[in-house]
C-alpha cells in the first residue's frame, strides 16, 4: 500500500485528498499534519484511510510520497529538520516556487515534482498540471481531472498566475446573482440559473477543445443583440485590458510571497 503524507493541510490539500479517496480508497494510507486542526481532524473523521499525525516529522517519516501544501513563503521553516529520505517522492503544490528551491528544502529526497491542482479536483474535474514527468505521481493524479504533464517548469508558474483568477470568477457570478435578486427573482432560482449557465458555457469550450475548434466570442452573439452590446461595453470600459494588467499584478505579488515568513 502506497503511503501518502501531507505537510500543510489546508483547503487545497483537503480537495486533493477527497479526490484521491474517490479513486484510490483502500489502496493508499494517508497521513496529514496536525496544522489546520479543523481540516485535518475532519479529514481523519471522514476517511478510513486518513490518519492525523502528531507532527509534520511523523508525516514525513511515515510516507513514501510527501505533498507540500504550506504557503510558499513558509517552505523553509516548515520543512526545516524534517526527516526526508532519498527514496521519497516529494510533490509541491507551492505556486511560484521553483523546483530547485523545493529540492534544497527537502534534500536528500531525489524525486521532486510540482503539481498545480485546483479545488474541483475534489470532484475529479478540472486541470491538473505536473512537471516533470513522474510515473508514481501521474498514476495518483491521472483519474482526478485532466492531467497535463508540462514540458517546461515555466509553464507551471504561468498557469499558477492564471489560476489566481478563480475567486474573481466566483465574484462575477455572485454579482450577476445579486443583480437578478434586485430585479425581484427568487434567490434559489437566480443562483441555480447563474451557476448552471457558467457550467454550461465551460462545457461548450471543453467540447470545442476536444473537437479542435477555437471559441470565438463573435460566434456567440447576434449582431446588434444583447451579448454583443455587453461585450462592447466591457471593451469600452477597459474591462478586458484590466484582466491582463491584473495578471501582471498577481505575478508581482507571487514574487513577494516567496520571501520567507515565520511559521506559527
From TrEMBL:
What GO biological process terms are annotated to this protein in UniProt? L-proline biosynthetic process
Q: Which InterPro entries match?
A: NAD(P)-bd_dom_sf, P5C_Rdtase_cat_N
Q: Where is the Pyrroline-5-carboxylate reductase catalytic N-terminal domain?
A: 3-96
Give the GO molecular function terms: pyrroline-5-carboxylate reductase activity
Which family does the entry's similarity section mention? Belongs to the pyrroline-5-carboxylate reductase family.
Q: What PANTHER family has UniProt attached to this entry?
A: PYRROLINE-5-CARBOXYLATE REDUCTASE, PYRROLINE-5-CARBOXYLATE REDUCTASE CATALYTIC N-TERMINAL DOMAIN-CONTAINING PROTEIN
Q: What is this protein called?
A: NAD(P)-binding domain-containing protein
Report the source organism.
Methylobrevis albus
